[in-house]
């Protein structure tokens, strides 16, 4: 078994995915009809997927109403799209289970990453000590100003201190990972801000409708 995963940028975007039959990730050619793409809604809903969902959002209708996917199936690739929100990969190498999570402000408020971990535990008996977590490029805590009401609501719901007017999503997500039992050594953060790095799409920077994609799977 080999883990295949990639955090995309403007050079591996949603448009690229939908107009290709094959994309290359980690020097491996992946058929796009083996990818699962969901219709994200900024929720904390997680879905376990199997073979029947292959190609969803690519060659057939997207899975609607979820922001996280989990699978134990080989040659099935989970995809999320972002343009400032945090893409998160979870992987248990012992149970051979992967998850892809989209965590924006609302998903972070609702602790979607902990919900994904709980579902991995219930469905596959994954142990938090074994789960690897990786946070991809996203807007940083210095570039995400919000109004006072939004700020206060976020701090109240997450219980994590912030510095007005900016929100730091990753600060909360990492705290949630710790609370879920993920060891610090198992957490990797790609410290890249999508708003300040021109290689990435950023909704906060220019209201773009384009999205980079992030993909994880096993072969």
Element layout with pairings:
Layout: E1 3-7, H1 14-18, E2 22-25, E3 28-31, E4 35-39, E5 46-48, E6 63-64, E7 68-71, E8 77-82, E9 86-92, E10 97-103, H2 105-109, H3 112-124, E11 132-135, H4 148-158, H5 169-179, E12 187-189, H6 203-206, E13 212-218
Parallel strand pairs: 4-6, 4-8, 5-7, 11-12
Antiparallel strand pairs: 1-13, 2-3, 7-10, 8-13, 9-10, 9-11
Provide a quick synopsis of the model:
By secondary structure, this protein is of the alpha/beta class. The protein has helices at residues 14-18, 105-109, 112-124, 148-158, 169-179, 203-206; strands at 3-7, 22-25, 28-31, 35-39, 46-48, 63-64, 68-71, 77-82, 86-92, 97-103, 132-135, 187-189, 212-218.
Q: How does the helix and strand content classify structurally? A: alpha/beta
The rounded distance between the terminal residues' Cα atoms is 6 Å
The biggest sheet, with number of strands, parallel, antiparallel or mixed sense and barrel status, is: 6 strands, mixed
Radius of gyration, whole Å: 16 Å
- Helix content percent band: 10-25%
The CATH topology name reads CNF1/YfiH-like putative cysteine hydrolases
Spatial order of the strands forming the largest sheet: 5-7-10-9-11-12
Tally of contiguous helical segments: 6
What series of H and E elements makes up the topology? Answer: EHEEEEEEEEEHHEHHEHE
- Mean pLDDT over all positions: 96
Strand content: 25-35%
Poorly predicted sequence stretches spanning 5 or more consecutive residues: none
Indicate the CATH class. Answer: Alpha Beta
CATH superfamily: CNF1/YfiH-like putative cysteine hydrolases
